[in-house]
Request: fold
Amino acid sequence: MKNINNFKGAIIEESLTNPDVLKKVSITKTDVYTVTERHKTPWVKKWTFHFVEVDENKAESIASEIGKNMDSEHVWYADFRNNKTHYVIYYNHVFKMDINKKEDYQKAIDYGSKLGLPNYQLDFSPHHKVS
Reply:
């Protein structure tokens, strides 16, 4: 699947109600983290963090499918980007952003913050520093 225009990003498996969408992406690496209080996800014991590559021609449909299959009872996001476009995906809401437009990122950050994501997790923008 190597193509410089493909998208790279991350999906936490525990964020998905149906992980079958993971079969449609290339998983390049997986890390498992024990959940701590800082993660703000006490309903799960671990995060299975998949680093993924998404075919550039399937990115939009994969983003939509991820959004439809995210856990609706808790707040999560997934994201992937290439050198032009960045998708940030929440339950039933996909932000497709031009990576050069700071204002696009601010909308996605504000949305996640409004949903209750901790600031330190809203670190996907190259334009903002969060703590």
